[in-house]
Amino acid sequence: MEAQSTGASTVRSLESGELTTIVGEEDVALVEFYTEWCGSCTQMEPVLADLSRETDAAVVKVDIETNLETAIEFGAQSTPTFVLFVSGNPVKRLRGSQRKESLTDLIKQYTA
């Protein structure tokens, strides 16, 4: 598991086998399915870093090119795709770039 330091918290990059473990351990987890070459994914990096510091949710990334089966399992057919997990279960899927406020509001619905 690779971590990008963002101050108080981190955005973790996961391998496919780790995803089930992490989302099962966390009350709320926001997962971004991304690719290295995706411009929108790159633009989302500072947003994810902020979310990892400012919310109670775990924020993780899964590269769909190296974890294709996992991406298919969770409906990540384009990048970026965000899946919000609550108590280990996917509850919301968003495709494409998202505003920080939208993701924050979504997380707050499940952590408040």
From TrEMBL:
InterPro entries: Thioredoxin, Thioredoxin-like_sf, Thioredoxin_CS, Thioredoxin_domain. Residues 1-112 form the Thioredoxin domain. Keywords: Disulfide bond, Electron transport, Redox-active center, Transport. GO terms for molecular function: protein-disulfide reductase activity. Gene3D superfamilies: Glutaredoxin. Pfam families: Thioredoxin (PF00085). PROSITE patterns: THIOREDOXIN_1, THIOREDOXIN_2. It comes from the Archaea. The keyword Disulfide bond applies. Disulfide bonds join 38-41. One of its GO terms (cellular component) is cytoplasm. This is Thioredoxin fold domain-containing protein. It comes from Halosegnis rubeus.
